[in-house]
Amino acid sequence: MKNKLISYNIPPMQYWTDCEEMTANGHLLIAGSTGSGKSVLLNSCIYSILKHSPVKAQFAFIDLKYVELANYKHLPHTLAYCTELQETINLLDACIYEMKRRYNLMALQGKKTFDGSTLYIVVDELADLLLTDKNTIKNQLQKIALLGRACKVQLICCTQCPNKQTIPANIIENFTTRVALRCMSAVQSRQILEIKGAENLPRYGQGILRNGCGYTKIAIPLTPEIEIKKRCRFWEQAIPKKIRQ
Ligand SMILES: Nc1ncnc2c1ncn2[C@@H]1O[C@H](COP(=O)(O)OP(=O)(O)OP(=O)(O)O)[C@@H](O)[C@H]1O
Ligand SMILES: [Mg+2]
Prior knowledge:
The protein is an alpha/beta fold. The protein has 10 helices and 9 strands. 42% of the residues lie in helices and 20% in strands.
């Protein structure tokens, strides 16, 4: 009876072979406890973007752990790769400037949506980032979370299970797509999904997805590192960085 709430509210398990849909609809937040597979899912999402819409994607990576996202450093799609706090603040400012530029362009063209590339801002360990300089980063993220969607500036963040002190609720609310991996407690599960249940998931490999359609239990795909490296090498050789920008 432990899983009662999940089995009651959530349709039968759906197996996802890639993460295209997850990254296509607004900001994505991945949360879970240590070792629950956040980085695995984050990498699968990036891989999926590179596979399905490589021509329409740009990336800005924020990797305070230095190594998690290093595979993507030299991709032609990568506009920035930050490992330091000050760099990150400057990068987020540049992203906000880019949003304004895109809105101005949309206004000039009389359009409500932007039809250029999607700029994905990828953050591994959002809670760490917010702990280092809470107010500046929080304000920047709030702006991006609020205004980014229409102009295709999209956040993909993963974080240790948040609490109200580390990640404010109004930032979490702006993530239209949220995936909870295994959490430590029902309180943490509620913080991310607004329902309990993620505390009963296996150690890794499964998650609960919350999006506009409700809740779905999902299997988390692991993309082998060798596949990621192969695809990155392909793009690095296909389009030398200087030409694309
Ligand atoms: N979907 C999965 N399928 C198979 N193995 C997985 C899966 N997800 C995670 N693992 C295993 O669990 C390990 C830890 O995963 P990962 O590094 O993504 O966790 P994390 O949540 O990012 O941890 P941390 O909080 O320490 O950064 C992986 O190296 C892998 O061996
Ligand atoms: Mg990780």
